[in-house]
Amino acid sequence: MRIHDALSGLLLALLAVAILVTVSQYPPIPGQNVGPSAFPGLVAMLLLGCSLLLIWRGLRGERMPLVVMGAWTRSTPHLINFLLVIASLLFYIFCSTFLGFIITGVLILAVLFYALGVRQVLVLPIAIIATLVIHTVFYKFLRVPLPWGLLQGLHW
What are the transmembrane regions (predicted)? Predict the structure, then answer.
């Protein structure tokens, strides 16, 4: 699939503006010059600049349709895998609070590994190890409050 540069740039510019509007509402930290909006605001400004360059390049470049579907969209297995990834994201959004990150992550990775042809004997061990590594990095090192869900009693 190929999306025209001007359309991609426009979508990214809208995302950057949405981020800037959101972070402008973050409260400042008393006594500090740099607040929680500084880093996301900086990234959004860079994104906005790059998206404007992308729009300019798209408008000056070759004439093409706004969206050109790739050959993979006519392949049923590839389309199923694509829809499976979207379904996994929706499953995480709607179930991670109740089930918790670890259970949700293991389920999603196991299903995706199975669908993508990972050897069956490796699917569950890799899904568990990968989820625990991701959880440890985000929860312990980056201090991201991941949901515990059903495993709240095992909270470490």
Answer: 41-59, 82-115, 121-142
